[in-house]
């Protein structure tokens, strides 16, 4: 089987190399059999300081949750990084689950669909891709996991001397025993869907003008269809308080039921 670097992972690697300061190190990790060494050699050739492959011999494939567990455990056994950059989704499955699952295992915040970011002290200011070409700005506290979009940055080319040096390099490998795991730890049940249904279409409310207003004002209300000026609110607070604000907003607008 031929292994190639996912475009999103290549963009994440390039952004990591661009971000690297003289005292920093860029380490590339992957989960896969020996054939995946070619991906790590590509990372070494373009400038990664170190690489690591994680695998259990005899395994044929991994689910996203298992891949995330192996990567998160490998990070814990080494020195945890300040910033973890992942591809937003792979070519194989395109699920986009691995970055969020790694963040869950590490208890770190995660931001997906990153197209651009900058470091400001212990904060990361980012730009996210939204549907229909829109963009969203925000910031997150380090350490954090960022899932990078494929088009965020083209990976630099490696020179011939670097390619030859990477081809001769020894790729370090960690197995389950070195990670303190056993095959039983990877055999947790996969989540299953209990039911599926088409999305619920929320009918548009019929606008009725205020009968207490004078006739000309009621006509103006009918002509405008009661459209209110759009507004937004920025919440800058710790994650727990921000989550409470979002849940309250969704409940106030009928998207969620309030807890009893």
Question: How are the elements arranged and paired?
Answer:
Elements lengths: L6 H13 L7 E5 L5 H10 L3 E5 L9 H14 L5 E5 L10 H9 L3 E11 L2 E7 L5 E7 L2 E5 L11 H9 L4 E2 L1 H4 L35 H10 L14 H14 L8
Parallel strand pairs: 1-2, 2-8, 3-7, 4-7
Antiparallel strand pairs: 4-5, 5-6
Helix pairs in contact: 2-5, 3-4
SSE string: HEHEHEHEEEEHEHHH
- Main beta sheet: strand number and arrangement? 5 strands, mixed
Task: State the helical fraction.
Answer: 25-40%
How many β-strand runs?
8
Mean pLDDT: 87
Strand order of the largest sheet: 3-7-4-5-6
Number of helices: 8
Query: What would you give as the CATH superfamily of the domain at 7-186?
Result: HUPs
Question: What coarse outline follows from CA principal-axis ratios?
Answer: elongated
Radius of gyration: 24 Å
Give me the CATH architecture of the domain at 7-186, please: 3-Layer(aba) Sandwich
Runs with pLDDT <50, length 5+? none
Beta-strand residue percentage: 15-25%
- What would CATH call the class of the domain at 7-186? Alpha Beta
> What is the third-level CATH name, the topology of the domain at 7-186?
Rossmann fold
Structural class of the helix and strand makeup? alpha/beta
Structure characterization notes:
The protein is α/β, with parallel strands linked by helices. The chain has a domain at 7-186: HUPs (Rossmann fold, 3-Layer(aba) Sandwich), CATH 3.40.50. Helix content is 32%, strand content 18%. The protein is built from eight helices and eight strands, in the order αβαβαβαββββαβααα. It has helices at residues 7-19, 37-46, 64-77, 98-106, 160-168, 176-179, 215-224, 239-252; strands at residues 27-31, 50-54, 83-87, 110-120, 123-129, 135-141, 144-148, 173-174. The protein has a five-stranded mixed β-sheet. It has a three-stranded parallel β-sheet with strand order 1-2-8, sandwiched between helices. A hairpin with a 2-residue loop joins strand 4 (110-120) and strand 5 (123-129). Helix 3 (64-77) packs across helix 4. The longest helix has 14 residues, at 64-77. The radius of gyration is 24 Å and the shape is elongated.
